[in-house]
Amino acid sequence: DAGVTQSPTHLIKTRGQQVTLRCSPKSGHDTVSWYQQALGQGPQFIFQYYEEEERQRGNFPDRFSGHQFPNYSSELNVNALLLGDSALYLCASSPGGTYGYTFGSGTRLTVV
Amino acid sequence: DQQVKQNSPSLSVQEGRISILNCDYTNSMFDYFLWYKKYPAEGPTFLISISSIKDKNEDGRFTVFLNKSAKHLSLHIVPSQPGDSAVYFCAASADSNYQLIWGAGTKLIIKP
Q1: What is the DSSP code string of B78-109?
Q2: Chain A contact for B35, CB < 8 A?
Q3: pLDDT computed for residue B96 by the predictor
Q4: What's the rounded mean pLDDT across residues A5-28?
Q5: Rounded to an integer, what distance in angstroms lies between the CA atom of residue A4 and that of residue B61?
Q6: I want to staple B44 with a disulfide (CB 3.0 to 4.6 A). Which of A87, B36, B88, B91 is the partner?
Q7: Min distance B31 CA to chain A CA atoms (Å)
Q8: What average pLDDT does the segment B79-103 reach?
Q9: Structure confidence by residue, pLDDT tens digits, A20-32
Q10: Model pLDDT for residues A37-76, shown as the tens digit of each residue
Q11: Partners of B46 in the β-ladder
C-alpha cells in the first residue's frame, strides 16, 4: 500500500519565479495538509484541503495557494518566490476528521 | 511567538536506558498532543498521542505523560534502542481543528 507520494523530491528555483509541488495521498485518505519546514525548525501549517476546498489556513501570505483534485491529490503553488521560501515542504494526508496523518518525504525547495 | 517549545535540541542516551523527551506549551486551548519521529530524508512518522482529558498514554515502549497545570508533556522510551535515534517532534492542536502546531524537535542519539 503506497503511502503519501510527493514530487519532485528536490527543486531549485530563482527568486521571483513560481513553483508547483504535488502530492498524492495515501489510499483511503481524503484530506491533504501542507506544511513548510525551515532548517532547524518544526513544520509550520500552510493549509488543509478537504472535498476540494481549503478548509483551514495557517499564517502564510496569498502567494501560497493550493488545489485539491477529485481523486484527492493536491498541489501547492507558490508565486513570486523569495529566498525565505527555501524549505522542506511536507504533505500529509489523513482520513477526514481525524489526526491519523501520514506524511510524505517532502520536497526540498531551494530559492536562489 | 512559539506556542510549543522543545528546549533540548539534542539528547544522548545509553542503549537500554530510559530516554525522556520534554515539551512545553503556552496555549491553554490545546486539547490534543502528538509525538512524531523523523529520520533524515523521510517524513515524520506518528508515534503516540494523548488527549487533554488524560494524563498518561502507553503504547509498548513509548509512554506520554501530560501535566496540564504545568503545560508540560514528556515522552518516555524504555528501553532505548539504536533504531530510536532520530529527531522527535512534539505537536499540539486546539479545539479539534486538526491544525498541528509543532515544536522545533529534539535529536535523540542512542549510544551503544
Answers
A1: SS--GGG-EEEEEEEEETT----EE---EEEE
A2: no
A3: 63
A4: 97
A5: 26
A6: B36
A7: 12
A8: 91
A9: 999 999 999 999 9
A10: 999 899 999 999 999 999 989 999 999 999 999 999 999 9
A11: B36
